[in-house]
Every structure is written in C-alpha cells, then in structure tokens.
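User: structure tokens for this one?
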Amino acid sequence: MSHDQIDASEDDLKTTLLRLNARAWGIALGLLFGLGLFLATIVLVMRGGPRVGPHLGLLGVFLPGYQVTTAGAFIGFVYAFVIGYAIGRIIGSVYNALARTEK
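Assistant:
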C-alpha cells in the first residue's frame, strides 16, 4: 500500500467513526421525550387533587387530545415521541453534514 492509500483509508475510517446514526438519535430522543411526558402526567394523575396539573395541561393547546389523565399520558407519549424523533433526526443529520465537510 502506498502512503496515499493509507491516508485515504484513515480519512474514510475517521469519517465513518465520526458519523452518527440519525435514526438511533431520533429513537433515543423520542423515547426520552415521550417517557418524560408520560411519567410527568402519570405522577400528577396519581397525586390527584381538585386541580390536577394546570400547567402541564396547557400542552393540550399544542398537542390536540392531550389532557392530564391516564389516557392523555398515552396520547402525550405519542406526540412527544414524534417530536423527539424529529429533533434527534435533525441533530444527527446536521452533525453528519458538518462532520463530512470537516476533512
């Protein structure tokens, strides 16, 4: 192998190692966001009281169908997972685009 071939294979290895799996980032952030909202909702439902989670209930403005109820926890999980997945995919894609240009 020539010196140029070794340099090229090292650059390919570095680029491969620097790349993120955008789908994995999407799933990870989706689960993090979804479980976070799910658990926050369930905790408030279990605490109960006359006014259950008025601040968290405001998410219903942005997430149609979401309420601070047990059913709302599942609806919120789906919404938050989709939002987290999209953010994770964007982070992975932007990072990979920047890593590709930095040689």
